[in-house]
Design brief:
The protein is mainly alpha-helical and 170 residues long. The chain contains 6 helices and no strands. Helix 1 runs antiparallel to helix 2 and helix 1 packs antiparallel against helix 6.
């Protein structure tokens, strides 16, 4: 546990930067964003140890975990419903990585979309309508899942700010 007020401020500022990196990583997948937010909140709570800090961190970790889970479940359900196996998803992820290198950061999203459509196109016997429909549903689910995950992680960061203000002022 940190003892001085200056150290508490430094820990809080560094944690704020880590949480910002986590939120950015949700949109531009550099690191696992939700995991970064959860670990950042946990380390912040352990280092400061105040009850208000623990309450804000615990609530934030739970919200981030809910968003992360909801995103994964929603995307998985749609992929299962559209009968998209892991193969096309792995191809889409590979194409996303190539796109990230060729046209950063927009190439990540374009590569994923084009890779998924291409894999589905060949898997579905060159039926572009079926491939397009399945790919569109999958991309919509991924987008909605990303928004949900970002919303919950953003709410957790808001709780961090509120907990920090309460802890440092009172």
């Amino acid at each position: 546990m940190v003892e001085s007020a200056a150290a508490e401020i430094i820990v809080t500022l560094v944690t704020g930067l880590v949480l910002l990196v986590g939120l950015i990583s949700l949109v531009l997948p550099i690191l696992p964003g939700s995991l970064v937010v959860i670990i950042g909140l946990l380390v912040w709570a352990v280092l400061l140890g105040a009850p208000v800090v623990w309450a804000a961190a615990a609530a934030g970790m739970v919200l981030t975990l809910i968003g992360w889970s909801a995103s994964t479940v929603l995307t998985g359900r749609v992929l299962h419903r559209e009968r998209i196996p892991r193969g096309p998803i792995l191809i889409a992820l590979g194409a996303a990585l190539v796109g990230l290198v060729v046209l950063p950061p927009l190439g990540l999203f374009l590569g994923f979309a084009l890779g998924l459509f291409g894999a589905e196109y060949f898997r579905r016997g060159k039926d572009w309508r079926a491939a397009g429909s399945a790919s569109l549903q999958a991309l919509r689910a991924v987008g909605i899942g990303l928004l949900m995950e970002f919303f919950f992680a953003g709410t957790a960061v808001s709780l961090f700010v509120l907990g920090s203000v309460i802890h440092l002022i009172f």
